[in-house]
Amino acid sequence: RVPESWVSPVGLPGWISGSARDRPPAPRPGVRPDRQFGNLGASNNWVVSGNRTTTGKPLLCNDPHLTLMAPSIWLAVSIKTARGGEIVRLNPTLPDSAADLPVAQVGATFVGLPGVVIGRNSRIAWGVTNTGADVQDLYVMQAPANGSSAAEFYAFEGSNVAYERRTETFKVAGSADVSITVRRSRFGPVVTDNGLFSDLQPAEGQSGAHADMSLRWISLERNVNDTTLAAF
Questions:
Q1: What is one Gene Ontology biological process annotated in the Swiss-Prot or TrEMBL record (predicted)?
Q2: Alpha helices for 79-218 (secondary structure H)
Q3: Which of the residues 18, 69, 136, 182 has the least number of beta carbons within 10 Å of its own beta carbon?
Q4: Taking CA 120 as the corner, what is the angle to CA 116 and CA 125, rounded to the nearest 5 degrees?
């Protein structure tokens, strides 16, 4: 039970702060379950020293707040191997001999990721939270000169540069495959193709068409030595 003197924070219903703690909240008609009580997203993690626990061992709490999703972004996973092998080699801080040691980890991960993002082994526990970071930029592509096709070229530093192209095919259950063509500039993939952002206004030199924009994102950068997995 919380003190009556608590004042409900802005954006939070009274039952959370205690002013209406004796009655359950009434669902709001037509509002998604994860939106019933406002925006409660605020990832956090903290640790308590073993000097303040009854066992003498530290306590770690990790709470990455995410809205309800189906399927869930998280997947419960357990990794147990007689030898660490490549799992251990992902961490450049460990000696090569560590690859011969057993690995036993449990926790949560993302589908397809070969590791435990949040979890523990027999000796330690670890957690992560996300924060606001500037890792994306959108580039408005400039129309090519000399009447060249804007679908094939873009202007960069006074020259016409050809887009890279690739075909991506999606398997659809009970239906035919769907294929799309993805263009890529030196900055990244063109995200305004295939019907996306169709309500954008035409760019200068692109009469009758919306502005072509490329997404530069650190996760799509080529030749980047991403050592994220080494942390786990």
A1: antibiotic biosynthetic process
A2: 86-89
A3: 69
A4: 115
Is residue 71 reached through a cis peptide bond, with omega within 30 degrees of 0 on the bond before it? yes
C-alpha triplet 138, 39, 35: angle, nearest 5°: 105
Q: Where are the domains of the chain?
A: 62-126, 136-220
- 57-67 burial, b at 16+ Cβ within 10 Å, e below that, comes to eeeeebebeee
CA nearest neighbour of 2 among 14, 220, 11? 14
User: 136-220 in CATH: which number?
Assistant: 2.30.120.10
Question: How far, in Å, CA of 150 to CA of 195, rounded?
Answer: 16
CA pair distance 98, 88, nearest whole angstrom:
7
Structure tokens at 193: 């193709």
d(CA 118, CA 64): 10
Mean of per-residue pLDDT scores for the chain: 76
Residue 24 has pLDDT above 70, yes or no: no
Q: By percentage, how much of the chain surpasses pLDDT 70?
A: 63
CB 94 within 8 A of CB 85: no
Element (H, E) at 156: strand 153-156
Q: Is the pLDDT of residue 170 over 80?
A: yes
pTM of the predicted protein model: 0.50
- Give the bridge partners for 137, in sequence order: 216
